[in-house]
Amino acid sequence: MPRLQKNDNFIDKTFTILADIILKILPTSKEEKEAFYYYRDGMSAQSEGEYAEALEYYYEALLLEEDPSDRSYILYNIGLIYASNGEHIKALEYYHQALELNSNLPQALNNIAIIYHYQGMKATDKKKMQISKLMFERAAKYWQQAILLAPNNYIEAQNWLKTTGRISNK
């Protein structure tokens, strides 16, 4: 099952070795260990742009992983892949599933906001101003939630919220 990394660098190798040692020491079930290996291999494939392979590993990890927090990160990464491939509706579905399991994922909130903002820009270009306004309001809602969880992050979003009058200049 272990995936051979094509771009093995010192940090990746070190992480893999440490993770393997920790998994041997920690009292985890066989399924939990196997889920982690699939997740790790999915991250490796994803970092190399091998999205189809990464999705296979993530789906296998989902079948085995029971911990809601860990499942949320798997779902989030699946959302990242779909977003990278321009499949925004699917990405939104996975980001929302991740948030259902773990509401403390500002990165998922941010990515949802980015998709809505993008849709708002597309609607503006097509002169569909009502749809544009709705998408921008949705983007603002999700960015505000992300900023509440991570106030020092998402500076561009904070600036957009301020310049569009959707947040006060505190």
Report the strand count. 0
Question: What is the SS-derived class?
Answer: mainly alpha
Beta-strand portion reads under 5%
| CATH architecture name of the largest domain | Alpha Horseshoe
pLDDT averaged residue by residue: 89
Query: Sheet with the most strands?
Result: none
Along the chain, the helix and strand elements come as: HHHHHHHH
Q: Give the end-to-end Cα distance, rounded to a whole number of Å.
A: 52 Å
What is the CATH fold-level name of the largest domain?
Answer: Serine Threonine Protein Phosphatase 5, Tetratricopeptide repeat
Principal-axis shape: elongated
- The CATH class name of the largest domain reads Mainly Alpha
The helix tally amounts to 8
Spans of at least 5 consecutive residues with low confidence: none
- Our count of domains comes out at 2
Task: State the share of residues found in helices, binned by percent.
Answer: over 70%
Give the radius of gyration.
Answer: 19 Å
Main location: membrane
Organism: Halydictyon mirabile
Membrane topology: Peripheral membrane protein
TPR repeats: 35-68, 35-68, 72-105, 72-105, 120-153
Give a structural overview:
The chain is an all-alpha fold and 170 residues long. It has two domains: 9-87, Serine Threonine Protein Phosphatase 5, Tetratricopeptide repeat (Alpha Horseshoe); 104-169. The protein has eight helices and no strands. α2 runs antiparallel to α3 (51-64) and α6 (106-125) runs antiparallel to α7 (129-149). The longest helix has 21 residues, at 129-149. The termini are far apart. It comes from Halydictyon mirabile.
